[in-house]
Amino acid sequence: MKKKRVYVKTLGCKLNYAETSAILESFVQNGWQISSGNEEPDLVIIHTCAVTGQAAQKSRQHIRKMIKKYPKSRIAAIGCYAQLNPERLENIHGVDVILGSEEKFNVQKYITDCRKAVYIDAASPWDIKEAAPAHSLVYDKNLGRTRAFLKIQDGCDYGCAYCTIPLARGRSRSVPLNRVIADAVTLAEAGYREIVLTGVNIADYHSGSATIVELLHELESVDVGRIRISSIEPDILSDRLIGVVASSSKIMPHFHLPLQSGSDTILIAMRRRYTTAGYRERFLKAVEAIPGCAIGADVITGYPGEAEADFQATFRFLETLPAAYLHVFPCSLRPGTTLARQISSGVCKKVHAETARSRSRLLLDLAEKKQREFTSRYVGKTLDVLLEGLETATSGSTVFSGYSENYLRVSVKENDSCDPVEFVGRSRTVLIESMGEDLILEGRFVT
User: Fold this and answer.
1) What angle is formed at CA 292 by the lines to CA 289 and CA 295, rounded to 5 degrees?
2) Low-confidence ranges of the chain (pLDDT < 70)
3) Which terminal residue of the chain, N or C, has fewer Cβ atoms less than 10 Å from its own Cβ?
4) What is the model's pLDDT at position 420?
5) How high is the pLDDT of residue 44?
6) What's the predicted TM-score (pTM) here?
7) Across the strands, what pairs with 430?
């Protein structure tokens, strides 16, 4: 009997990708085959994102694209946008199933028949006490088994004024410690060289008495070369957490530390849990304690109520911060948030669109300058690079591509003495000789 086939298109964050893998693994265990999408599958799943208005629009576009491409397939929309706006998706002709943040892990719900044209199950995630585990064992099989995503936590209790994540994913909850360790061992045994810890607010990890620090100590015993921490909130980047990274040979010297604004007035309006002084203190503490530490930051421009003085404070703050890179986002007003209610009630006013765009352009220029300054430091030095595969460079030559421990992109030209089988998926010492215009470091293997 021919196996049924399932194909998934994933949008959004690393957490979504880890969860997609867990969903696919459940389908495989139930006798399904994963489709590449080259032939019409029995089921098409679109794993949606809703963190910004643009992400929501992209989710709808991909759903319509899949409906058009696979007219005979059963179409399921899942994830954050499906959780927040099931009625909007229900009105897209061709959608058969809509599943929310927790229901998406149940294989049977994808094939449930119902009297209505669309099967919808997007119950509130707020009553769920434990995060569903997820890792990218299935999803990353074709990536050379180098980097895998491991979910350790879900949801968030912070309630930032602009954010939909608590609405979509519920309160903060963690995957039990023993399950995280078991999944990490599985990934290591499958040949993955780097494990990226993912979640919504991973430093808020709690399993019994264990915090993120205890979890990292336990992960040290797993037979994997690299453990990488993803985005982490500034107010819980503790001295203990910095210390465990500084003393570890496995935990990578890299943090993504969301800033959002360099104005204390705007941080208060956003309901963030730190001041600019506190952010700077945590940032510099990590940089000073961890050799080669790369720290990136998110920043939102055009937040309602952001005066020119607030923007200038943000710009000056970032100018003096030794950030490795910046991610710049224009403020996206999301329905159901505190910010949306404040706008509708007149508590604050939107920033003019052209003003917001102008501020974004200035910060994007600063972001390029910051990345160039940090990356160029490593020209003439050696870096340990985990090679992820071969790709074509802008020059047209074939290069090995990978990331350093502090998350710098590095390429090395392929030559006859470099057997891809022996190099891809392994860490190699690379002498950095130059930096390209695309800010990718270029070098050669040190024999």
Assistant:
1) 80
2) 1, 114-116, 137-145, 396, 416-421
3) N
4) 66
5) 97
6) 0.91
7) 383, 445
Beta pairing class for 382-392 and 325-330: unpaired
Rounded distance between C-alpha atoms, residue 33 and residue 1, angstroms: 12
**Count of Cβ atoms closer than 10 Å to residue 157 Cβ:** 12
* pLDDT for the residue 111: 87
C-alpha Rg value of the chain to the nearest Å = 22
Name 295's Cβ contacts closer than 8 Å, sequence gap at least 6: 254, 255, 256, 257, 283, 286, 287, 322, 323, 324
Whether residue 377 contacts residue 441, with contact meaning beta carbons closer than 8 Å, is answered with: no
